[in-house]
Amino acid sequence: MERRKVGILGATGMVGQRFIQLLNHHPWFEITWLAASDRSAGKTYGEACKWKLDTPLPAKIAAMTVQPNVPEGATGELPKIIFAALDADVARELEPKFAAAGCAVISNSSAFRMVADVPLVVPEVNSDHLSLIETQSWRKESGGYIVTNPNCSAIGLVLALKPLEERFGIESLFVSTMQAVSGAGYPGVPSLDIMGNVVPYIKNEEEKMQEEVGKLLGSLSGNHIEMLDAKVSAHCNRVAVEDGHTECVSIKFKKKATREEILAAWSEFAPLDSAHLPTAPDQPVEYDTAVDRPQPRLDRMRGNGMAATVGRLRECSLLDWKFVVLSHNTIRGAAGAAVLNAEVLALLGKLDPLKKAANSPVAVGA
Amino acid sequence: MERRKVGILGATGMVGQRFIQLLNHHPWFEITWLAASDRSAGKTYGEACKWKLDTPLPAKIAAMTVQPNVPEGATGELPKIIFAALDADVARELEPKFAAAGCAVISNSSAFRMVADVPLVVPEVNSDHLSLIETQSWRKESGGYIVTNPNCSAIGLVLALKPLEERFGIESLFVSTMQAVSGAGYPGVPSLDIMGNVVPYIKNEEEKMQEEVGKLLGSLSGNHIEMLDAKVSAHCNRVAVEDGHTECVSIKFKKKATREEILAAWSEFAPLDSAHLPTAPDQPVEYDTAVDRPQPRLDRMRGNGMAATVGRLRECSLLDWKFVVLSHNTIRGAAGAAVLNAEVLALLGKLDPLKKAANSPVAVGA
Amino acid sequence: MERRKVGILGATGMVGQRFIQLLNHHPWFEITWLAASDRSAGKTYGEACKWKLDTPLPAKIAAMTVQPNVPEGATGELPKIIFAALDADVARELEPKFAAAGCAVISNSSAFRMVADVPLVVPEVNSDHLSLIETQSWRKESGGYIVTNPNCSAIGLVLALKPLEERFGIESLFVSTMQAVSGAGYPGVPSLDIMGNVVPYIKNEEEKMQEEVGKLLGSLSGNHIEMLDAKVSAHCNRVAVEDGHTECVSIKFKKKATREEILAAWSEFAPLDSAHLPTAPDQPVEYDTAVDRPQPRLDRMRGNGMAATVGRLRECSLLDWKFVVLSHNTIRGAAGAAVLNAEVLALLGKLDPLKKAANSPVAVGA
Amino acid sequence: MERRKVGILGATGMVGQRFIQLLNHHPWFEITWLAASDRSAGKTYGEACKWKLDTPLPAKIAAMTVQPNVPEGATGELPKIIFAALDADVARELEPKFAAAGCAVISNSSAFRMVADVPLVVPEVNSDHLSLIETQSWRKESGGYIVTNPNCSAIGLVLALKPLEERFGIESLFVSTMQAVSGAGYPGVPSLDIMGNVVPYIKNEEEKMQEEVGKLLGSLSGNHIEMLDAKVSAHCNRVAVEDGHTECVSIKFKKKATREEILAAWSEFAPLDSAHLPTAPDQPVEYDTAVDRPQPRLDRMRGNGMAATVGRLRECSLLDWKFVVLSHNTIRGAAGAAVLNAEVLALLGKLDPLKKAANSPVAVGA
Prior knowledge:
In chain A, the strands form three sheets. In chain A, strands 3-2-1-4-5-6 form a six-stranded parallel β-sheet, with helices on both faces. Chain A is about 30% helix and about 20% strand.
């Protein structure tokens, strides 16, 4: 099968690098276009990028010329699938241009996540929300659209919450995070701020977690999303960890749940046909029985970095239950989330053809 | 004024070292006796101890001979004031022997904290509980007694809570901690477990926090403590920080409180006559208005390591208010807490004479 | 092809865990026996071991029963190939027993490295030294023998040095190391000793580096090794890195070398038939042209953790040239080194049959 | 005694903050003027500065208005003593303007260190070089001049070397550094670059160390400095340490030295009248006999951060001796060095009066 051509916006940043790492040998997608800010455009990717991953920068990618961050700037053909790893301000300006140019913009930015007709999707949680793209004006005009994935701190959490919401209903929850520095990009967090330290503040992060959980666990009703009616209170902290966000959760259900029922909800959670989605983990939520897990250094790479690990399920003296959830913030929480969104869109026939809304699923990967 | 002679049990450990650091130039106390386990007894302190603090080991202390961990083992005179920095198992066996031998045992151990007639005290919070010592059987027989300070993770918290409890009443609270490695002693946490990592578990810590808060904020009623009737739910985590425990708190009051009222409660909190207590900080709870404070590396040494710093007061979508509190875990949270307990006992006349229960305050430091 | 049965001595430690990780899917070897100290013997491996790697403990291994650390303790058949990850003191006692029992002991310990008839081997550097096993008394009696690999800090260094020694001759060198904490095992280095710190001392390490380099680069002359006649001065330091030893080298050659000649010596260094050795890296020494490389976090996993990375070649104002070399200390520097030794022994026919010295290479992997 | 008014150029950076910390309660100097770049000028210091030290920002300083970085920009009186903590590029432009305006510019920048008529001084090492200021053209015209202190990595080293050079003569030396992140300023080193990592490169650092050592240990001959004729080879590395540079040294002397002679040279090294210089440590070079010292976390604050600690003296198999030296890079290695230079200049009468070259020592502090 021929691989679909894809481009990466914001290719030189931390999430852009993860896109390259995850897409380099992807069976369905082929990187044919890389774009970054004016500072980088015109250089080879190898010159423009300070590669920070522990797998080598692929030679073919290093030799590609970085394009300007605009649809018309594309030398040769602009791919119709664009993975976007832009800061919110830049995304707010650029992503609509690519959607208007007929591209499927698979965005990791916060810019449009809470916009009513933009799907905010984690495929295991709410892939039905993807149908919102058909209501976007770009879609009607050019076939293009914008799909977003949530904040890195929300993804692991909603993976753990979704099977609980389905079975017990969530009334309220606390979450206190300990987030890795890679979530702030590069150069990001100065070493003097975080070595041997904790910073109990990440700008806008608590607000994002609270509202994104509501939309992700909300229900599609016709052409809009009914937010989940649950109280969510988040405390967000930065800690001296390279990769992997750890989150302490206390939760109250609408319906009483036993320990066994909760563990069953997690272990039986398999909403996707992972065999046919290259990036989907076999088990999206893994429970570790050890008393001191999950831990970012040991558990972030489960499911090739796409699984969330839960642990320490125990009773809460204030709400019902307490547990800890961990996930890799730049794989599951960013680039991998976007790639999985694209894979599901491919399965749904939303990537090809783009010119008109497709209704019949294309047998991708069959 | 002549300084009172004091001894240190468990002198070679991390808290033992902090006792030496804090007592070395103390105006009221003089270290005349050091004891440690059999492995160390008989050696000089300089030989026995792997000194881990960044101030020099005092030469006079280095030359002292470490005594066995038993009252009868004392070469020369056994001091009547014993600061104890023992593991709980050892404390459970040894501390009563020293109390029975007529010593005021100022303990940092968890062994007796929750025993009904043992005061669990943070002087700014509940110094009236100290009167419980008069009900101890050792006190009646030998004049000796045991006084304890709380767990390192509970101390900063109750300092922040006490002025709020006084004014608004606490109904429930959620606390999620990020605790420093020094809290686990030496060698303590292996570097492979914590570098670039988070361990979301500290043995017995959540239980200790929950129950100790209840006793500390409880009220003395005749000869026993009425526990505070509030729900407390704790999540305890170890992070890659040397010193300083950071805690995220959500809290619900019995009586509504405004932001200004809460800030006033903290800023006006001055329960001790700090001018007459060498180790008491001028302001036990300091509020920092910066959006990203408190931080352990920057704030742990406020008030010479004895002040708690609070910050980030904001509304909670689930309970009433959220904030962050930080305190130094081996100074305010351990050795300094015990020294301050001893200072208050001295002011109350409970250190001298020990043979009979003293009722009239001795004018120490006047 | 049937896989050869192998055992692991000291299976629960850090290097033991790496052996399991590297051998679990090895095409030539199959783990059938695990042994550890009395504390662990009798338990399942899953119970006995605190698994510290970021790949999951294989379920099959977790279920195996840990055997006592003695040849006669083997339940079922004792494998004839034993990977040993023991502390030097224990190795000194146990490894000869296994050799005497007819086992090929592939040791990572320092106990016998400098013994005259024990080969100290890095296959890319001095695989001809392996013939020393034929002179061992165990070999003659039972077929068993001991082969060792060097200290983790010496391996990366000699990989970088070997092609230079071949072409230019080494007269003297200075090496200053910055070594990862995993080199000290688990629990190993206390976090309070190394977080935000440097410890400029590792017991016996400088001596080991200096003498092992001499033997590794020495020449086999009949039945003994002529040490390399070069002055080596080592400074060894522990730094806050999980995995990967970084070493700064200044070197003086017997014959002048240009920058291009040195780079060519490294890039052309391909002493092994890596296509036929599963663990051998394609390129054992990789030069990185970036001004700030190699770095442990970014480069340790090159060649699946088996390649050494060199960088920063520049003139030395005192000797001839300066450079930096980095290698993974528990893969290339320990378990991987031993596995590669075993692979070469297999190719040489020294693993099968063990009862008599084999002279004809067995076509393994062909 | 009235304190002299001083100003700080580059007051908001890491070294600027250390100047404020060290000068805030200085008995001889009083901060009356703070300047920083256009971005900060006009704001209060509290607004302009992200304070990163663990002692509180003094309230009086926080309230001061930051002035523009130019002599004519001074609101009120421009102090005649200026401590400069500027990047080299900025220093190259601005420091001469202040010297021309009649200020004694006590500079921490590298811009003019190697200029022939600018003294590069560590008072314990070469305070006689200060007389070079009299040859500066600014001095003749306005009374102003520039004095510099060395790079943070050179200072600890030359403190250890000076007593050895005096007694044995230095022929050649290797030095391999492990430098703290604070040396790169703020934001400086990104956390993703250094957490769990080593960066074996610091721009221009090896060149600076090599040439500055030559000038510092050089001898004043009339109006110029004869560089020390010794070969120096430096390897410079960045490690995950907040403060404190650790350096491994191998050294060859012109005259043989015994261990005892070297230890005596260090312990007897007391070139300054420390009783009359507030910032001078009693013992500039302290030898620690423990096998694993010095260590940055434990030893950097000796002598209030102004002493260098040496340790691990042992024979070198290549040169004569090996040792480790450590010093605090932003106190001894930067702001403290400059303050001590100013104190010595005060003692020499070079601070007052500035209009003409003073020959008679002023009895400061007498």
